[in-house]
């Protein structure tokens, strides 16, 4: 194996984050502990997105086995003190990712469709909400020609040219520009 092959192989190793997530549930009767482990990704994507773990009782004995892929579905089942599934008990699905809508033109997930939909939007949208842009709405409705004609950037460039020709400076519409520096907590 030559040096370039070694660099190429090293370059192809996927970067993956894996960690244990510990959550506690405290109440008057007991203390439950959940500790799912986000698995490391191996060569060629083996183990990618996998999560395995247990829900422990107050004396830290495993009671429930949690398994699945965080981007597809998660299941659980009762387990013994060694963490092995109890015989005769099948996995039960906790949740699964919703199917992609059938007439999806943009490869959006179900969540993205709901997020961008006018049906789920608040009654009074902010004037700066991108759902109100005519080019975006035309594209969403499948009218690519109208969307191209309504391009926001082209409109902004035209306004800038007119402003510069008149010698006017740009004035923000929705906020005031200040020299004050404020950090977000």
UniProtKB/TrEMBL annotation:
Arranged from A to Z, the UniProt key words for this protein are: Membrane, Transmembrane, Transmembrane helix
Instruction: Tell me which GO cellular component terms the UniProt record holds.
Output: cytosol; membrane
- Keyword check for Transmembrane, yes or no: yes
Chloroplast found in the keyword field: no
Feature: compositional bias, Basic and acidic residues: 148-162
One Gene Ontology term of the molecular function aspect: sterol binding
Q: Map out region (Disordered) in residue numbers.
A: 143-162
Name the chain's protein.
Uncharacterized protein
Print the organism lineage: Eukaryota, Viridiplantae, Streptophyta, Embryophyta, Tracheophyta
